[in-house]
Amino acid sequence: MGEVDPAFIQDTQHRPELAVIEAEGIPLIDLSSANASNHVSQIADACKNWGFFQVINHGVPSESRRKIEDAARKFFALPLEEKRKVSRDEVNPLGYFDTEHTKNVRDWKEVFDFVVPTPAFIPASPDPDDKELKELTNQWPQYPPELREVCEEYAREMGKLAFKLLGLISLSLGLPENRFNILFEESTNFIRLNHYPPCPIPHLALGVGRHKDSRALTILAQDDVGGLEVKRKTNGEWVRVKPTPDAFIINVGDIIQVWSNDTYESVEHRVTVNSERERFSIPVFFSPGHHVWVKPLEELTKGEKPKYRAYNWGKFFAARRRMYPMASEGRQANPVKHFVLVHGSCHGAWSWYKIVALLKSSGHKVTALDLAASGINPKQVGDLRSISWYFQPLRDFVESLPADERVVLVGHSLGGLAISQAMEKFPEKVSVAVFVTASMPGPTLNISTLNQESLRRQGPLLDSQFTYDNGPNNPPTTFSFGPLFLSLNVYQLSPTEDLALGTVLMRPVRLFIEEDMSNELMLSKKYASVKRVFIISEEDKLGKRDFQLWMIEKNPPDAVKEIKGSDHMVMISKPKELWVHLQAIAEKYS
């Protein structure tokens, strides 16, 4: 997996516990004919109380399982360049992938996906009026040569087991044994080969983050290393599913929860990683045909209100792929975009360090710039005679881009002025501009009016400092944030170590005269031709929410997003939320 990337790090509340609770209570059901009379009641209890159970004597030949496990080990042992010859992409969601995300955090694993049966079809788009179908095509590597054959053999055995289990689940709900069968005609099922390499940070990362399965039924084969954890319904504790030789682990997904009108619930689960041993697993995900409308079954809602609206499974799946291109069960990186990040006053490119890591982990190209006399830019604040000089590093960079390249401009705070000038001068090189709680002038909102309104709403600056290089009777020439002001109004929801970092790395910002700013920020139809998105920071105490809304009203962007629980330093207090928004915006407007 290479170096440990910050994108793997789980938020504190979602990190795995050091003390493991093994789930002795997860039912182990013997499917042999000798116990047939108990199967239905055992499955009913398991689905109600856990949402998970294990099965033994299931009828799947152990040789079939051994062969696919051996082939999976051979495939994942290949050099990365060989595995990537069958990588999935934005066109084909099947094959190899190693940068999957769950809940916007990168999973510590690599996968290989294929569909069964073939040919398999899904809607080409989530548009209800679009009847076009898209065929899914499996990609098979040259090595190991037996992979395709053993996978297809295993898939046939899994199909038999799945219909046996669906029949028992149907009976446990008081329905005919074959009630679900017609819903799985032309089904779109897929099988995943998972490989979890040894992880040097098992206390910080997860093989798969917490999630529920969106499909109907999952059948999992795991090796003896283990790592699957289930969230206990009674108290919310994470409990480890102890590996049982030759057993399969079964869980009901969201679709069965809907069909049963919450009689059975899809349960949250995750996968921990091991610092010493690699782990392999093979989940098989079963879902109905793409034409099926998923809704509570009429037989189970007599006398009670359906808890879910009907939705078309195929269109739902297509919508997931549109939101998260290349996605199957997890969220993954979008096709490569070039993000140009511009900092706010007194800050520098360093302030984007979390976003840079996240975007790069998703495969994007990222340029974080220092404006003049900021960060590590060599100019001194006293050297700047015009705001044009302050913006020059961004202007020079955008101008130097190849003629056919368009970037995503992202400006924070005062950086909104810098990207506004770039939009005016180089509209053909900007696919979309994102204002992150940033100053946003425009043809209908000049900089003079914006500055006056900002000053009118400004609160006490506490220990912040001005300098008066032209004498005490003239306007101030520079401004610096004070440590107390930073802690109370700029970084109040950010980690303390980031506040400390910011306090050390701050540089004064030049205060430019209004006439100079107005001359450099005369915005026209060129600026207006660029798509704009404004991201509101809910708890910003520097550019307060009401001021952000005022700018939006006076200079309406194409879209508005909001990040809850974020301070002025959105990229530091809520980096993952901002990362998700930036990728979605880039995808929409590219």
Automatic annotation (TrEMBL):
Stored Pfam families: 2OG-FeII_Oxy, Abhydrolase_6, DIOX_N
Gene3D superfamilies (alphabetical): alpha/beta hydrolase (3.40.50.1820), B-lactam Antibiotic, Isopenicillin N Synthase, Chain (2.60.120.330)
Keyword annotations of the record: Iron, Metal-binding
Species annotation: Vitis vinifera (Grape)
Annotated Fe2OG dioxygenase domain residues: 187-288
Protein name in the entry: Fe2OG dioxygenase domain-containing protein
GO molecular function, one term: catalytic activity
Keyword NADP attached: no
Keyword Membrane: no
Cross-referenced InterPro entries: AB_hydrolase_1 (IPR000073), AB_hydrolase_fold (IPR029058), DIOX_N (IPR026992), IPNS-like_FE2OG_OXY (IPR044861), IPNS-like_sf (IPR027443), MES/HNL (IPR045889), Oxoglu/Fe-dep_dioxygenase_dom (IPR005123)
